[in-house]
Design goal:
This protein has two domains: 11-73, Nascent polypeptide-associated complex domain (Ubiquitin Ligase Nedd4, Chain: W, Single Sheet), CATH 2.20.70.30; 80-115, Helicase, Ruva Protein, domain 3, CATH 1.10.8. The strands form two sheets. It has a three-stranded antiparallel beta sheet. Strands 2-3-6 form a three-stranded antiparallel beta sheet, with no helix packed on it. The chain is of the alpha+beta class. The chain has four helices and six strands, in the order αββββββααα.
């Protein structure tokens, strides 16, 4: 038999849910979740087939995600117009301009100064 975590020993799950309701905390499992993505400037944290629980308490709403995340570096799309502008302003090739934009996270002014 699996050992319960220290904080859960002897607590009936039904009684726990009842206590939470009495405190104004409501939990609800979100059905049929296919994917959860957390986006940061540099990375996407992706949960495929995650289990998600919505927890509503007075003045607060939270989501609990359980699953196996994978981290994927974010690629910033560089518009062709930006590449053309940087190439024109610096006299560099479009490939050089695109590389500078990728290195600067798409920042036009910084890419121009980098190549200038």
């Amino acid at each position: 038999m699996a050992k319960k975590p220290a904080g859960m020993r002897g607590v009936n799950p039904r009684a726990m849910n009842q206590m939470m309701k009495q405190m104004g905390i409501d939990t609800k499992e979100i059905e049929n979740v296919e994917q959860v993505i957390i986006r940061t400037p540099d990375t996407d944290i992706i949960f495929d087939d995650a289990s998600v629980t919505k927890v509503a308490a007075p003045g607060m709403l939270t989501y609990q995600i359980v699953g196996n995340p994978r981290e994927v570096p974010r690629e910033i799309p560089i518009p062709d117009e930006d590449v053309a502008l940087v190439a024109e302003q610096t006299g560099k090739t479009p490939d050089e301009a695109k590389a500078a934009l990728e290195e600067t996270g798409g920042d036009l002014a910084e890419a121009i100064m980098k190549l200038g």
